[in-house]
Structures are given as C-alpha cells and as structure tokens.
Amino acid sequence: MIWFSAIITFLALGGAMSIWWFDWNGLLESSFGTEGATDLRDMAETAYLILLAPLAIYIYRFYMAAQARSNAILVGPAQFPELYALYQDLAQRLDMPNPPKLYVTNGDGVVNAYALECNRRYRYIVMHSEITLMLAKSPDVVEFVLAHEMAHHKLRHVSLWRIIIGMVPNMLVLPGQTTTRAQEYSADRVAMAVCPNHASAIRILAVGPWIADGVNPDAWLEQCDAEHREWMVRAANAVSSHAVGVKRFKALRDIERKGFSAHGEMF
C-alpha cells in the first residue's frame, strides 16, 4: 500500500506540472474555459504544497514531540523500572539496540499509545497510563502494545518520507485510511512474532483497562466469526485508520492458529 500512496503522490505532482505547462503555453483557458482553468490552477497550487511540506512537517514534528514529552514521564532504570526492563527485553527481541525513548502520560481515560519520530536520532513512544497500569496483573497487554509501537519504528511507518507521500492519499480519504490500516496490521504481525499467543492483548482496546481481565477470548472470537463479514462492519472498517475490533482480533487469532500465512481483512 505504501507504493500505492507513492504512485498517487507522483501522479498528483505530474498532473500539477501538466497544468503548469498548459498554462505557461496559454492553452489552459482555451482548453478548459475560464472557470475550469481557475479550478485547475487551484488544484495545481495545492499539489505544489507537497514540495514545500517536508520542511514544515519536519519542524512541526519537533514541536509535537516536545509537547508530548514535556507533559509525560520518561521511563528508565530509576523510573518505572519494571516497565523499563520489559521495554529493554522487547528491544533485544526486535533487534533494536537503540530503541526510541519511552514516555508515560495521563490519557484522561483514553486508551492509546503512539510512535513519534523527528528524525532517525530523535524517536519516541508515548504510552497512556491507562495501559501501563495493567503491567502488574496483565503484562501481556503492555508487552503487546509496546511491541506494536516499536514495530512502527522498526518498519519506518513514522518516517518523514512516509508522511509526505501519504498526504495526497489522505486527502482522498479511502486510499489514506487503507494505507494506514495496512501499516497497523503490519505492526501487529511484528508484535505477534516477538510476543506469540498475545492476540487477546487487544481486549484493552475493546473494553478499556477496567474490565479487560473479564473478557472471554473464545466468546469474543465467536462474535468475530459471526460479525466480521457483515456489510456495515465492512463499511466501518473501510473508513477506519485501524481495523475494527472484530477484524483485528480475528486476524491475530488466525495467526495463532494458522501461522503467519494468515492475513487480516482490509475490507
């Protein structure tokens, strides 16, 4: 899917250059009329922003990272040592000798974790405390979430060039969401490779940390088998940046049962 995003981006730039060539040679208005020519110029100017975007996004990413880090706690040997030990163990399993810095922040009830990258040197993972609090009773949840976010870095999903070539597909919504969904599936697969039999860890995304340990994985899988092909479930999945729960959990359980030849459903 990332190559599909790149093709769309280059086509947009090629189209903008074609519009510029027509306009430079005085053919735009004669070919498309005054109103059509104006609309095409506006489209071309929007496409040209892609050429200016890298610098702006590069600077903005440092700001976003600073904002996140300044309101969070850096995990280390003297700060949440058990979490730090788990993180270092995962880094070894993923062959990441210099893993991103890990921060914990208050999610105000929101369950989330995300990867940030300013450049190859300044990389971060931010985890909401709503996930971290499960470390004592349900370490599989924390382990899988960490592995998933580390996989985003490992696979370069948050690199600058990935974001740049995703700009045009994201404007078109469905191609952008599909690409992001594919990346989420990929990160899940990497996490499963280093955390086998952790499929049910994503129960925290379905019910939160408060009743996650009460989820029956087998009953949830039955629900997934019954619902994952419904048309409206497919529609909800198609416009989502992450696979909906019934499809995502089924994909993870399929890996446990069938191995990595099994793949998640994009639609």
List the helices and strands in order: HHEHEEEHHHHHHHHH
Termini distance? Answer: 14 Å
Provide the spatial order of strands within the biggest beta sheet.
1-2-4-3
- Helical fraction equals 55-70%
Beta-strand percentage range? 5-15%
Number of helices: 12
- Care to count the β-strands? 4
Which spans of ≥5 residues are poorly predicted at pLDDT below 50? Answer: none
Q: Structural class given helices, strands, pairing?
A: alpha+beta
- Largest beta sheet, briefly? 4 strands, mixed
Radius of gyration: 22 Å
Mean pLDDT: 88
| Shape descriptor | globular
List keywords for this structure.
267 residues; 63% helix; four-stranded mixed beta sheet; alpha+beta; single chain; 4 strands
Describe this structure in words.
By secondary structure, this protein is an alpha+beta fold. It has 12 helices and 4 strands. A 4-stranded mixed beta sheet has the order 1-2-4-3, sandwiched between helices. Helix 3 packs across helix 5, helix 5 packs across helix 8 and helix 8 runs parallel beside helix 12. The longest helix has 43 residues. It is globular and about 70 Å long. The two termini are 14 Å apart.
